[in-house]
Amino acid sequence: MDAKQGKRIRMGLQIAHFPCVRTIEGFDFSFQPSADERLIRELSTGNFIAHGENVLIFGPPGVGKSHLAIGLGRKVVEQGHTVRFTTATALLSVLGKAESEGNLGDKLIEYSKPRLLIIDELGYLPFERRAAHLFFQLVNRRYEKGSLLVTTNQRVSDWGIVFGDEVLATAILDRLLHHSHTLMITGESYRLREKRKSGLIRSRLTNVDPEQTQRETEVKTKKEPDSGVDNR
Q: Hey, how many other C-beta atoms are within 10 angstroms of the C-beta on 197?
């Protein structure tokens, strides 16, 4: 990598607003075997960008969805494309504020420019009806023009609840899924695993001595008759 290319990549990463450094190489596929490594490696080539295809990553909290989203985003930046990262909550806050201030059109244009827009944590909080309409406008504007990468903890069948409108949810899904790659990740949370390894989380039944528990129960039972309260 020459100095000019390195400078371009650093600038691209800065513009992308990634919240932290995560790489595809650093993803533990052995811990999450349900993650389709072949598809992820293929997406890492960035070929989906050329066709305006979307990527949807489904899975419960903590299984590595954001890690993969950032890692794929970095790969796309390294290949010379523009990327923008945001959470769904932050995005809708910005669009809502822009609408109230009368410059929604400018914000929609801003979020339509990157070749890849990453929207993380869709579905963690339900959308108000107006916010759902703003999200649809953005998805519709980027449809078949720019790629979207969306991570969500909600099944497709629950998106009507997320958006508060079954018809609107169907319209959004239709555009997202039309040209898309989907990843389904199941398994244990990385964060819970680390806490378990550090001893912060363990079964409440671990290391319990049955005989000691029985003795404590017997002692408590014997004391109960003398536990009356004197209110004199």
A: 9
